[in-house]
């Protein structure tokens, strides 16, 4: 999960990680969006670093903008500098491969990805 849209922020060795969004809150009247995601990284000695990412922002027509905070899930100390992020809507060239026939198909796919790559804490 490269939350900032810039691989250098939280993606290790150029690989995208996957994490489930939790505590999602959306207010349709104000278009405010917030969520959390647990994303473990691994230290040089293979120890697990348990990070909690917290997003607060707004959904606009072609972009989601807001603040992204990273906190150590155990100590609540900042693990990265807080950032202002802007995720722009893009059109995928092969969008058909991302379409699922039903919600059940989508949930099955997501759960497989999370089991293989997701947070393990």
Our count of helices gives: 1
Order of helices and strands: EEEEEH
Helix content, binned percent:
10-25%
- Tally of domains: 1
Strand order in the sheet with the most strands: 1-2-3-4-5
Shape: globular
Query: Radius of gyration, Cα only, in angstroms?
Result: 15 Å
Got a strand count?
A: 5
Give me the oligomer status: single chain
**Poorly predicted ranges (pLDDT <50, ≥5 residues)?**
1-14
Major pleated sheet? 5 strands, antiparallel
The end-to-end distance, rounded to whole angstroms, is 16 Å
- Strand fraction equals 35-45%
Overall pLDDT confidence? 78
Explain what the structure shows.
The protein is mainly beta and 121 residues long. The chain has one domain (12-117). The chain is 12% helix and 38% strand. The chain has 1 helix and 5 strands, in the order E-E-E-E-E-H. The protein has one helix spanning 103-117, and strands spanning 21-27, 32-42, 48-59, 63-72, 83-88. Strands 1-2-3-4-5 form a 5-stranded antiparallel beta sheet, with no helix packed on it. The protein is globular and about 40 Å long. The model is unreliable at 1-14 (pLDDT under 50).
Keywords:
121 residues; mainly beta; 5-stranded antiparallel beta sheet; disordered N terminus
Please give the structural blueprint.
Blueprint: E1 21-27, E2 32-42, E3 48-59, E4 63-72, E5 83-88, H1 103-117
Antiparallel strand pairs: 1-2, 2-3, 3-4, 4-5
In short:
By secondary structure, this protein is mostly beta strands. It is 12% helix and 38% strand.
């Amino acid at each position: 999960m490269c939350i900032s849209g810039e691989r250098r922020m939280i993606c290790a060795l150029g690989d995208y990680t996957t994490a489930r969004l939790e505590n999602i809150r959306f207010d349709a009247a104000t278009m405010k969006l917030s969520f959390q995601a647990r994303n473990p990284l691994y230290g040089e000695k293979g120890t697990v670093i348990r990070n909690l990412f917290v997003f607060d922002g707004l959904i606009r027509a072609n972009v989601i903008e807001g603040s992204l905070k990273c906190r150590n899930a155990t100590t609540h100390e900042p693990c990265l500098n807080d950032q202002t992020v802007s995720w722009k809507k893009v059109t995928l060239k092969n969008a058909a491969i991302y379409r699922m026939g039903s919600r059940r198909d989508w949930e099955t796919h997501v759960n497989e990805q999370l089991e293989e790559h997701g947070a393990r804490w």
